[in-house]
Amino acid sequence: MSDTILGGDFTVYYLDDNRQKRIEWSGSASGTHTMNELYSALMDLFDESLQMDDGVPMSAQTPVEYTIGAIDAGDNNPWYISFRTMEHLTGGALQTSGWTHSDGSSIGIIVVPVTHSGSTIVQGDVGNDISGATTGAGTLLEVISTGATNDYLVIRPDSSAASDNFTTDSQTITCNSHTATQAQAGSNTGEMIWANLYSLGTIETDTHIYLYQGAIGDDERTRVYSIIDNTQDWWSDGHIDICVPIKDYTTSSFDVVDGGYITVLARKYTTLYDSYEVACSTTSGGRNPIPLATSTDLDNPTGYKSITTTAVSTDDFSVGDEIEGGTSGARAIITKIEGTSPTYTFHYYLIDDPLTDFSSSAETITNNDATGSATKDGNAPSDQGPALTSWFTDAGGTAAPTISYTAATADIDDDGTDEYYAVTIDCNQCPLTYVYEWAKYITRRGATGTSDTDGIPGELYIGGEVYLKYSGTVSGGSVNEGDDVTQATTGATGIVISHDTTDKVLLLRNVRGTFSTSYAVTSNDNSGSFTPDVAAETFSPKKAAPLGTFAGGTFFGARGVLLSDWASSDENSFILTPIEGGTKERPTAISIEVTNLTGTDESTATDDRVAVFRLTGSGGDINKTEFSAYGGESAGDATLDVDTAIPQDVPGKSGGGVVRLRDASDNNKEYRIRFSSWANNGGGGSDGRFTLANFAQFTSTTGTNTTTVVYSTGGFDGAVKRGDLVYNSTQGAVSYVKTVDSDTQLTISPAITGQASGDSIEINCVPIAVDTADDVYVPLLDKYATASSESTSIIYSSPINFRVVVRNVANATPIKPFSIDDATSGTNRSIATIRLEDTIYT
Known about the structure:
This protein has 842 residues and is mainly beta. Helices cover 4% and strands 40% of the residues.
């Protein structure tokens, strides 16, 4: 027999019905009731005279905390409520009593893992007898199919006898003529707890809240999915009020999952994100408020996919509309519309759960916000925006941004002291507006890749939360990036994002508890231990955008996030926060731009040569005595030192440039050498050092002659540029790269007499023995044009007088030498080249 309550939404099966004694949801797939409604309805049902001989299923401890199972004294068979039923309950937490099975003393409830492959026992078999070929007999109460390695059979044993427990590995289990193979020796049993989570606050329309739980120590956090569908959860968009199991039925004793912690995230793409980590009660579950706030992100408007239509029934689609695929069921928000009727291209981002994309075949596209519909073409959706490399290169970047999670130091504010960082975003010259959208894209809901987010799903990455610094040493082993660590006495835990072993600085993420400066921190992976006696500081991550926010044209990096290789136009468009705190920004930067150039790439011999030289004053000469050489270098060395500190208005500190060396012993003969960076206190006692863009010495191979350098191993592409210095130590001669012909061949000019295969050659090195009498200077710009304009970014400190020089007689239309003087007192300058054809040159 059975009864229904709450309008038929719940069915109550009794012990007399083949010992089921369970409560099952029998309402609509999307229906819900509060825990109090279920409790009250059960109390009404069991208040009737016919139920007086049955133990009541539930008790109430508070209006929001309840217990189910063996409630009345002497009730030897606990009531069961299915996991799938719990997905329809709101408004309160639930714990069990009497579910723990003990051989010989307590019948309880057991969970038996069975091999998923080949199992034919299904939910429709619930209520029938179930038995093992060797051990075990009882009633099947629920089938949990994870779709992975194992399914799980929830069983009420016939008795507490050991013979009724399922203890035999690999035995055949039979129910209703269906079979499965037991997947372990013994069953799982214990008390279950469902915590109640409800969100509050203001969130954007179509926001789908999602959850993660699981141990953080080995990055085992997983998405919380429905018990009946391992691809999606069971709640709809918007705020949640749900019951989540916080004990693990797949473990032998129903262990508490990760101390009861659950991470709740709201990350709808194109909005400012939010997240919250709740620590649920491990005894009652509790009713837990989840404060969330999301809002439209005006700096993140770009979709990451597109589809194209072949027909429209009405011309009624607008940016911001929700569209839906008739076959795929995909739902998306339009971010951009290209084309005209009937051929539109809709750029979009996906919504709903799961995030399903449109079909690779033709399907009807319906506008859910208006009356329009269209027919999609037969092609697969295309990547767009931050999912597409060309989006970045078209904006002037050299590639899409990349990210690394390792300790780094940088002197962002040029105060002479390096700061500590843990995460480096290589902008690859992309504008920061694009870098920001990329950072949002890799951390949105649906970003399940781990390569860009420290080995965890991007949709889960939150960022650094604790800064540690120590003065002593690491003993007993090592503490490496990615290790999970625990502090003695406090019990605080976290994951190491980066560990600067030189400066003894760490940044931690996924932190639990509070670290102090008094106790040892130990790696649970590599046994190293240290005491953070200098600093143990907790801070809040940037929940709205985990890698950094963007506002008012400025990128504000999350703590510990470093930018590198930014576009020169963004020199003053970011503020960073190093691991140790405080904010750092670049000193005021200006640009000097030369336009109306002819330029394609580093290998084209017909491109303009453009240079900007610092002058000694207004109308003065080029300042060729900017620095005195420190001296001591030998020909072939890869660094060049000067005897004074390099001022901040010398370009190329991190991005490189060109340095010129004047040999006083040879009538001030000049050598042009490309460098990759400069730094003060460079080493060897010098005050400033240029690190040259050195291509290490190699032995030339067959094909090398006086104007050609061949190196069969290769490596010239990307490492060598037109105009680079070539030093042949065998011949004791210097030349320059005229063209990079291939990865293995260079053309040089002037010719090097006697050069042949087998010669020792080096590129961008010191070409002479340097003396203190030699001079060094750095052009503000010195290169072959690769575009119609070239610019240099300069940290401004005082007025600069400069001369622009553009020359090109190699082009099909040779020009007369162009030269003009200008000055800046802290503002950007743009000089247009006047291209007068040289009709005399032949």
